[in-house]
Records
---
Amino acid sequence: MAFVLFGSTVAGVTTEIINTGSELLLGRVLNTHQQWICRTLADRGRTVERQVAVTDEPTALVAAVREGLSRADWVIVTGGLGPTCDDRTRDLVAGLLGRRLVHRPEVEVQIRAYFEGRGRPVPARTRVESMVPEGAEVLVNRHGTAPGLALWLEPNPLREGGRASWLVMLPGPPRELRPMFLGEVMPRLEARFPLAEPFACRTLKTTGLGESYMEERLEGPLRGLVEAGMDLGFCARVGEVDVRFVARGPDAAAVVAEAERRTREAAGEHVFGVEDETLELALVEACKVRGLRLALAESCTGGHVANRVTNVPGASAVLHSGWVTYANEAKERELGVPAALLGEHGAVSEPVARAMAEGARRMAGADIAIGITGIAGPSGAVEGKPVGTVFIAVAHAGGTSVARHLNAFDRETFKYVTAQQAMAMALRVVLGVGLVDAGTRS
Amino acid sequence: MAFVLFGSTVAGVTTEIINTGSELLLGRVLNTHQQWICRTLADRGRTVERQVAVTDEPTALVAAVREGLSRADWVIVTGGLGPTCDDRTRDLVAGLLGRRLVHRPEVEVQIRAYFEGRGRPVPARTRVESMVPEGAEVLVNRHGTAPGLALWLEPNPLREGGRASWLVMLPGPPRELRPMFLGEVMPRLEARFPLAEPFACRTLKTTGLGESYMEERLEGPLRGLVEAGMDLGFCARVGEVDVRFVARGPDAAAVVAEAERRTREAAGEHVFGVEDETLELALVEACKVRGLRLALAESCTGGHVANRVTNVPGASAVLHSGWVTYANEAKERELGVPAALLGEHGAVSEPVARAMAEGARRMAGADIAIGITGIAGPSGAVEGKPVGTVFIAVAHAGGTSVARHLNAFDRETFKYVTAQQAMAMALRVVLGVGLVDAGTRS
């Protein structure tokens, strides 16, 4: 997965993230904070220079914070604020900066309210969470007990010339950290370190055209904007390519809007969403706005498409029925696929995919139905149909189309890629047969 | 998610990981290398002290490598070995160490073979991948073109007293890095830095008992082993608790085996697997070994269970049919749930869950069937049934059991947790009704 940026990048507030926790360095948990914080900041015109993960062993943790504070304008520390004996960030940072821990009654009140709201007694050990390094600002935790802490160090004793730094400590659980970061940290950041100039960015989500073809297609239309200083980036994902525009300066918003307009003009049929939108969201929304009902008949994807479609809140308005017809007899019994068809062509074939989609559409009384049959592997290959072979059918009022792909990946990737292809195919049909113009989708 | 280790940890070869790539610090991709490498090493008795991510901007990358080499016995750098202009690791490391890049014909031969094997011409720009810092050992890449590189620095010019360090550079794509790490790096590591004493570890996967209850249950049986130096760790995941034993010394393997035996004796009904095994794998294997056929009727989980069950290779021997009956009429039509039942009790109710499971079992001719109906949210709450309410039924020859849970999470977590509960419940039924003793599963 490559992310290529053309154009300039602008230096700003130097920022470092320190993730603490022995479980990170034992590989027991995945560090999702890095991506989430970096992404959140990048979308607001900020960059992160370095991220470090260390155990909660005192020497390692203190060394990492000391180094961060010796270099950066802003240091974010995650984890180690809870009530257990391996939550050491509060104490160690206070020690490093030579500050006492002081009791903050308002934190104790919040913690009590948190437990009382849940009808549970307040554990004695949470009292330590209201002990705060002297001078720290408390960041309210609405989804847990440990408050975040912010310290404005001016002078910063650990930095050359005493240059100021902002130290922000956040609780480790993502469901506590994320709302705190957005609600408590970002407003303080904007006040503390305002951007030097306006910033705008936009990501368009596309499907059905490879990264280099997309680059080629957009080169002409966007050249002028890139030459005038706009950043243009491509990020190839499985079955998708993100196209991202970043601009700074007084015209930033207008530049990005113009880039989006030109891209939709040049490759609009491939754009299915913006920012973090998924294909499943695009498909559900496109069906919903047209009052179309969707049905799914999955063999080799085994419910993967249904699972993703039903991840979209409100999917029940669109998807009433799905089938996982793994066995031949299920294809016959549930979807009315003729036994003769299965016998003659095999379960993995164009006619069976077609019959599955048409059967699902008929049984469910749906407007659009997807039928998928293929060989997910690792075994199951037959003459002329290697592992990864898949047939995807989309049935609708205007007829049924079937596509054949060779998705030669491991089993889970096979399912993911096949689902991407199936949803993209169904989306094109929905946009084509619908009454609302594709241009109004975003 | 807490990982608590009781007992001692043993210091070894100091190890640091440096992940390079601007896409990491823009938050465009998730850094999975850290977890994977740390986990792989931890399972082999090794620890990682620090992980750093930096952009591929030269100053940042060089500073990170210099610092790593000034501190650690072993420095692992990932990314930046490809053929594009932002792949700078090779050049920058050669520059930092004052080494020339030399052409290695054997790498060029490998690259040519890689492309010829795929019937594609060799891109001219891949030639740069055969330019290697003088003295570097080449690590074969069987899944891509960029070789890994290993440099034994003795003396290490960047470390106090010239103490030796081992610098290993690996390509960024996980499907290239992982096999290279296991096949090329690990044998060299064992030779270069053998463990001081034998090491053994074992993780038991459990479900149905919370972390603190599990801790309580195992405290007595395992106390002797922990006092004699074994590490005991618990890692609470959603619907699962990992129990992990780590031992060192001549008896390491025997100690860990004894800990496993005692744990199975004390809490065996909750142990569903070992190491990375999943509940879906345990369920499929348990059904397969007993010749039992499984059917799934999902409403609120929308195919999530089917998707996970079909992630298991060979699931087709066990799962023939699944239904996603999101709408009431689908529950009636597909599973024969009586309209009166839906009218009287509502779709989210004990009788409907029961009727779904029994209907699926009957329609599919299955031995065991799961029926799930609930309110995934964010909307849909009704009087007495808040968002997160779910009924899970398991139907089998001996009858049907139904459980009610309140899984008050976001939509996707709701589906995951509910699936965990449903699979754990079905697994207990399978183990109970089966002919093979549960103790033979692992």
---
Amino acid sequence: MPLRSDWSGATCPIARSLDVVGDPWVLLVLREALQGATRFEEFRDALGVADSVLSRRLGAMVDADLLARAPYRSDQRTREGYLLTEAGGDLLPVLNALMHWGERHRPRTTGRMAVVHEGCGAETAYADSCSHCGERLTASNVSWVKPRDPGVRLPLVR
Amino acid sequence: MPLRSDWSGATCPIARSLDVVGDPWVLLVLREALQGATRFEEFRDALGVADSVLSRRLGAMVDADLLARAPYRSDQRTREGYLLTEAGGDLLPVLNALMHWGERHRPRTTGRMAVVHEGCGAETAYADSCSHCGERLTASNVSWVKPRDPGVRLPLVR
């Protein structure tokens, strides 16, 4: 099996999606972006990857319309940051579903992460709607938290 | 970036899941299994991969408890098939979410696939619950169909 087949024209939409997000690093970059990371250094520090590799990765995600470049000012210089696009944010259910599966089938003995719908404050067992109130989950109404620290928004670490 | 980091002990459950399903071929094998494929030849014909590669892949998925070996009789011989485990079936929401994203952000001009909850017959916009009636989706109550051919259960092709 070749490492990366070209599935961009596949009949199956799952294969077409995997053509974009089949590399797990893409989903880990999105994980950081969904938690508010926008600057190169934030992605680098969270993911622990070399500058050149991350730069190439972010560029590919811009090309795929998962991220959009956005200039910002820092130290009196204009730098380039990365904002989630609509298509990037719409991958939230994929990440939520992976989180639920990981907690269920690859649990850790200490600690646990949960998907919390901030609209009603409940932990949701579903990936794209709140299993408590039914509202659709979006990048702006979800937190990933440790249930034992209610209300604390925690960055996920590797 | 190494191709496959070891994320099995990661704090983040998304990373732990990606340690198992980060290879897109794993999700494509699960796609076939969720549609009823159990025999080696069924996976091979659907995915178009060499015997040796598929055999290694299926073995790894058995080791990861996504599939379980199950003997069956054919041509008066006992052969080995592969059945979805509970952990394998629980990846349905990941695949549904990828299908929804692919149809929305990588649409094809002809044809479209939908996730249908057979319990109420409605197309669901959600990955793990029916957006029409609210019931939880499972491997046994979902079909992937082309909406223009209602009621026809279609195998997805690459």
---
Amino acid sequence: MDGLEIILTRRSVREYADRPVPREAVQKILLAAMQAPFSGDEPPWHFIAIDDPGILSSIPAISPYRGVSSPIPAAILVCADQLLHPDGPDLWVQDCAVATENILLAAHALGLGAVWTTVYPDADRMLGFVNLFSLPDGVIPFALVTIGYPAVRPPPRYRGCEDRVHWNRW
Amino acid sequence: MDGLEIILTRRSVREYADRPVPREAVQKILLAAMQAPFSGDEPPWHFIAIDDPGILSSIPAISPYRGVSSPIPAAILVCADQLLHPDGPDLWVQDCAVATENILLAAHALGLGAVWTTVYPDADRMLGFVNLFSLPDGVIPFALVTIGYPAVRPPPRYRGCEDRVHWNRW
């Protein structure tokens, strides 16, 4: 699929085949994440790539997402280092969100499926991941993306949001 | 280019050829923006697509971005309707950032170039766009993307951020 088609056909994928995700695929996905634009001089993000079955099995208790199948084949926790953006979350939230979108799109481009589970600003989920990974002070868990080969590949769904487009004036 | 290549090779493009951007291209880019995932039941975003030369010429005074060539062939102002996410900016900032990234990637996929200029949370730029478009109460200008055919297409630049990747533990 070409670049535009990847963007247009991506869907959230919550149910995965019982098939491992190769580390090489996760590494490509992380490269894509790190090509995302960011504000300022340095990106705020860190990524915890997770393929350890024991750690993966503890995720649903922290970050429940209705309909995500278990076991989860792989996951990426996107984190923000607040020390790199000391002015507050307004900009690092943008930077981390953009990197997370690249993860979703790259997974789709590689024939995988993924879904974004919101972590920030949910205090309970944030604390759960801080504890699970003993995150250092100032590192905020932002979003969890679960990744696997789709059990069923959802068909494209085009949103009819034409009322959200305005030409040259509100 | 395939989907992964589009993500990996995108660069910010600030200098544009003196060539108009067809409305059909902007419409495809907006379709891509609206395929972005969002939190909750309804997306917060609205898009003002700008190809009126008079309006475009007034943008640099509101939202200066070092190195963006003038005249700008086209632009999209991504806005958030706060009334759709009344719990505050934490989630609508994520949703709008993701839609903005899809705009950048779709422009690149179509052979165009684009650059994201931060608007939110810069109070002066936000006020400038609120006034330019007489935005209704609760509608926040979030980001401005300028779009055109690249004067020069920047070569891919791969970031070496391997220190930002952690496997299974911090």
